[in-house]
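Field log, afternoon session.

UNIT: design team B
ACTIVITY: writing a sequence onto a fixed backbone
BACKBONE:
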């Protein structure tokens, strides 16, 4: 049984855990602590089994991290909540590279299974659920959100959308991540820093061939737009939240904010409304029998139930009440 974390140089961190239920009754608690300290804060809904085992090694520097998790009898949900996001302010993006076993990833109202032969991205700055369906062996590569924001205009669109790695650049990404994780322990800190950034560039290029891989004016605008969208998604349930609040929280002028969204082909108001409606639809589709349309309306940031119902019908060609009836 081991559980350790070490620092080499100024900011390189190495950590590992090798824990089983037979070693200690608090194996699951140690698992949670290890993940929360080294990856991000998560809540757990896991079936506790007597043959549970967890093995992991990771190395990180400057927001980049490569790690491998091997679990036996690890069936359950790992949940990233808005409260956890506010607690640790960890906004990294994680590439999932399954070696063995399937997982179901839920984010941005999408739910997709990811298994061997595919890779998938998740944002730690947004709520998500990682559903482990049994024994798993997965490599994770983390990138700072600023690194991704500066390169992808619509980074939320690639999350929870697994892609196959059968050939081409995605196969190169898969093989490179596996090799990087295998050989990282023999690299110097300087080599790790450089290799991690190069691998991050390759990963983003594989998800978006039009990715801007240079630190120029466009990358600054891309980063600002991504930050604005992230702020909007974080406050969808606030009825008082308005466009001026977005500009203020981003530290940019209202005029510049409008310019950023127009260049993206949508107005700020349209994006805010679109995201609120998507949130409402997700809530309605996952509602309990006692949930009401009014509750969903207010929780999605709409203050007028009639306007909400009209907007919902226009967007999805069905009324909120009809969606609730299907659930019931």
């Amino acid at each position: 049984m081991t559980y350790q974390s070490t620092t080499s140089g100024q900011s390189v961190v190495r950590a590992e855990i090798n824990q089983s239920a037979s070693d200690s009754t608090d194996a699951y608690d140690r698992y949670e602590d290890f993940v929360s300290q080294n990856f991000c804060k998560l809540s757990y809904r896991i079936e506790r089994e007597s043959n549970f085992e967890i093995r992991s090694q990771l190395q990180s520097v400057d927001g980049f991290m490569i790690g491998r998790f091997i679990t036996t009898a690890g069936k359950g949900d790992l949940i990233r909540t808005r409260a956890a996001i506010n607690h640790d302010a960890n906004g990294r993006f994680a590439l999932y590279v399954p070696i063995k076993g399937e997982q179901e990833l839920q984010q941005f109202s999408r739910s997709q299974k990811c298994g061997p032969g595919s890779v998938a991205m998740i944002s730690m700055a947004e709520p998500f659920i990682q559903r482990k369906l049994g024994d798993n062996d997965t490599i994770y590569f983390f990138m700072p959100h600023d690194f991704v924001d500066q390169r992808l205009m619509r980074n939320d669109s690639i999350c929870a959308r697994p892609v196959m790695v059968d050939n081409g650049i995605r196969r190169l990404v898969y093989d490179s991540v596996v090799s990087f994780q295998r050989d990282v322990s023999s690299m110097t800190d300087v080599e790790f820093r450089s290799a991690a950034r190069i691998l991050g560039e390759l990963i983003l290029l594989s998800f978006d061939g039009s990715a801007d891989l240079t630190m120029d004016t466009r990358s600054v605008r891309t980063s600002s737009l991504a930050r604005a969208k992230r702020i909007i998604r974080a406050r969808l349930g606030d009825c008082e939240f308005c466009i001026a609040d977005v500009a203020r929280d981003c530290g940019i002028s209202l005029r510049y904010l409008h310019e950023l969204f127009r260049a993206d082909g949508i107005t700020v108001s349209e994006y805010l409304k679109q995201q609120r409606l998507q949130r409402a639809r997700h809530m309605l589709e996952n509602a309990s029998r006692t949930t009401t349309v009014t509750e969903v309306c207010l929780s999605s940031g709409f203050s007028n139930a009639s306007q909400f119902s009209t907007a919902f019908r226009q967007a999805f060609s069905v009324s909120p009440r009809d969606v609730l009836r299907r659930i019931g």
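LOG NOTE: The domain at 233-327 is CATH 1.10.10.60 (Arc Repressor Mutant, subunit A).
NEXT ACTIVITY: expression trials, pending approval
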